[in-house]
Design goal:
This protein has helices spanning 2-5, 15-41, 46-90, 95-100, 111-130, 135-149. The radius of gyration is 16 Å and the shape is globular. The longest helix is centred in the middle third of the chain and has 45 residues, at 46-90. It is 78% helix and 0% strand. The chain contains 6 helices and no strands. It has 150 residues and is an all-alpha fold.
Amino acid sequence: MREILAPFAAFVPDLPTTLLVTPVALACGLLAATLVARLRRGGMRVPYTRKIFHFCIFTAVTIVQLRWGLPGVTVFGSLVSLLVLGAVLRGDGHPLFEALARPTDAPHRARFVLVPLLTTALGGGFANLLFPGYAWVGYLVCGWGDAVGE
């Protein structure tokens, strides 16, 4: 059983990493959320605010991965996910939710935020398990490619 769980131990951050990455994650997440919320309130269409958020978050998590490794990514991803989940729970009218949830996805706007969030977490996890030294390349390819493709 230990052999099966051993690769997952790399995901668990130690206290120093948690203490260092938490403010970075909160700052990056809140800055990106504030930016896209303001752009949306200013009239920018949701597909663009959503992609700007992706660009910001995927760039930041790449830097976190290169500096603090997978444990740092665990902290960063967890906190940014909580930020997004909080916006989804608040739903219609919440500035971040309105910047991420496309009006054309109604009545399932939350689903089209949560499913990509979950698949991103799974994809990042698998990338780190299968290609630990190069997972950050996948973040940039997916995050920037998706943003530029919009």
